[in-house]
Amino acid sequence: MDSFELKNEFDDEFKEFEKAFTFKEEKEKKDLFELFSENKTFLYSVIFYAAGLFCGSYVYLKCKNDLLNSLFAVQTEDFLQSFLNNLSLYMLIFAISVLLGVCLVGFPLLNMIPLFVGFEAGMRVAYYYINYAIKGVGYSFLMVAPFVCLYLTVLIYSISMSYEMSRKIYDITVKKSEIEDFDYKTYLKKYLLYAALIVAVSLVNTAVSSVLSGIISI
């Protein structure tokens, strides 16, 4: 085999290797893009929630006053009253996400919900930290953060479904697209499931807070 044949064989092998490597690289990029596309609503919700936490903390730091302190101060309530207060707030935010889901242009506004939740949580944590220092941080981690995370998880799933439904309504109405898998009953069943989970989160939140309030206090 002369040097010319060796060179051709080497070139062919190099081209095959380069082709395989390029295909693998393109496949990895495609997989990452598909992964982002499939979970973009969840990622946006987390990003907006984090932004809300930062903004809420900053606003409380700059605007703290007696009125804000009275809103976040720990108050003694009986079990039923505390449960109804938690449930009404959680359900109000959930209802807004549902209404935006059945709205023609609701999908661009859905990210404002985790932003608002994060803003409120950020102000509350800032209140505990500024007024009670390390003890306030510990109280936030034990009495606030776990239930906010539980509720936020359910809410993000609700937002994701509302975004999907609102987007489909927009495509059908404005773009005149034909969508075969648009089943209102499926969405209704999921919304009812999420509503039941929110009731459960509110109940657990109230029960645990009632039990721990005698042990952990600020």
Provide tags for this entry.
218 residues; mainly alpha; elongated; disordered N terminus
What is this structure's SSE topology?
Blueprint: H1 3-63, H2 66-72, H3 79-101, H4 112-173, H5 184-212
Helix pairs in contact: 1-4, 3-4, 3-5, 4-5
How is this structure best described in words?
By secondary structure, this protein is an all-alpha fold. Helix content is 83%, strand content 0%. The protein is built from five helices and no strands. Helix 1 packs across helix 4, helix 3 runs antiparallel to helix 5 and helix 4 packs antiparallel against helix 5. The chain starts with a helix and ends in a 6-residue tail after the last helix.
- Based on CA atoms alone, the radius of gyration comes out at 25 Å
What's the overall geometry? elongated
Number of helical elements: 5
Beta-strand percentage range:
under 5%
The biggest beta sheet reads:
none
- The overall pLDDT, averaged over residues, is 79
Quote the distance from N terminus to C terminus: 87 Å
Order of helices and strands: HHHHH
Helix content: over 70%
Number of strands: 0
Class derived from helix and strand content: mainly alpha
**Regions with pLDDT < 50 over 5+ consecutive residues?**
1-8
